[in-house]
Amino acid sequence: MSAKISRRAFLKTSIAVGAGIYGVSYLGGIKRTPAIKKFKEHRLKPGLIVAHGNISDATDEPVIVKEMVRRAIKALGGLDKLVAKGDRVIIKPNIAWNQRPEFAANTNPYVVAALVELCKEAGAGRVKVMDHTCSVNPETSYTTSRIAAIAREAGAEVAYIHKNRFTDFAIHDGKALKSWPFYEEMVYADEVDVLINVPIAKQHGTSRLSMGLKNVFGMIGGDRGSLHTDIHPKIADLNKFLKIDLTVLDAFRILKNHGPTGGRLDDVDNSAECARRIIVSTDPVAADAYGATLFSMQATEVGYIRQSHEQGLGEIDYRRKGFEEISVAL
């Protein structure tokens, strides 16, 4: 066989690569122009639910965290009001860093497990857990965070990001970004029905805080480091494109300093005054606005939260559409 590529093969490859840039792909020689995912129609309540967990024994953490998620989702209306039988669900936690759960750099694995179980109970046909990590070897973050093992035990398919599945999409009305590469499986309507964002609340050296709106960095490709210059309008722009159906903010522990990577237990707050919470809402701006208060900040002090609200992505007054706090204890 000749080592030289034919002109015809070269042109076919070039066309396929070029088409991918514009959201068109070719599978088996068949042109594929999938529709972009829209927000899933649902019957969940429009407000914000905060579940407070009362725990005295660390060994109770798996049970209390999962019960907090279940009670919060139930108060919002129940996950069966969002997930239908056969739905393809992607759960996107923060698995960015090679840190153990107690360092609060990644989402609590039991928050993820509870959501997997609820999706399966609602009849989901497939539940995937994935993140575009910051680790050179993503498997280390997936393993050390314990998310991979605990999510699989709950019934999820744990998947890694494939670098060849990022496609550049235009961002309508983008202020700082006109387009950016997004992960296809989280974008195309023929691959995902429900997208659930599951961040952890933590301090961030550049964006001040990292919660739901910032967690979309794990759904994109490209030069993510370049986004940290003038980061606030860019976070807002990225959220204009992605259609996230539900935000579940993990504040069971929060990282107060040296975020986003953490690594020191002294920087972690797990007190009832500032942590021990799970926040649930279909409004990502409202979820982050409440989350800011855990760091003694007003939401208007955090540029990307304020700008996301100003550009119509959600409500910065987290009480406006309904607000409920519930207590969970064993």
From TrEMBL:
Residues 89-292 form the DUF362 domain. Keywords: Membrane, Transmembrane, Transmembrane helix. The keyword Repeat does not apply. InterPro entries: DUF362, TAT_signal. Pfam families: DUF362. PROSITE patterns: TAT. Coiled coil: none annotated. It comes from the Bacteria. The keyword Transmembrane applies. The chain crosses the membrane at residues 9-28. This is DUF362 domain-containing protein.
